[in-house]
Design a protein that fits this description.
The chain has about 120 residues and is mainly beta. Helices cover about 0% and strands about 50% of the residues.
């Protein structure tokens, strides 16, 4: 059974930092690209960052470049999202996704990030 469990969300002040984690099980983690998405009410889910199976390449949405860093530890079956210089507009539910094919994959349950003073 595939499981993706996000953690690390919470309330942070503008300019602060958070590190999200996504622990995976039930599939070959090291064989799949991983992604972080975010979603706010009334909007479509937005791709934030992606990382290749061995971590050899990463990509980011323009809105988070230079502030967020995606990484992974294949020995721990975990993908991370380090978020620095957080802004109120980063407030969202953040989801990790295991990308198992061009259009297929699995979602975690999400973790809320709120950036507010």
């Amino acid at each position: 059974q595939v499981r993706l469990v996000e953690s690390g969300g919470g309330l942070v002040q503008p300019g602060g930092s958070l590190r999200l984690s996504c622990s995976a099980s039930g599939f070959t983690f090291s064989g799949n690209a991983m992604r972080w998405y975010r979603q706010t009410p009334g909007k479509e889910r937005e791709l934030v960052a992606a990382i290749a199976p061995a971590g050899e390449s990463t990509s980011y949405a323009d809105s988070v470049k230079g502030r967020f860093t995606i990484s992974r530890d294949n020995a721990k079956n975990t993908v991370y999202l380090q978020m620095n210089s957080l802004k109120p507009e980063d407030t969202a539910v953040y989801y990790c996704r295991a990308q198992t094919g061009a259009f297929s994959g699995f979602w975690g349950q999400g973790t809320q990030v709120t950036v507010s003073s």
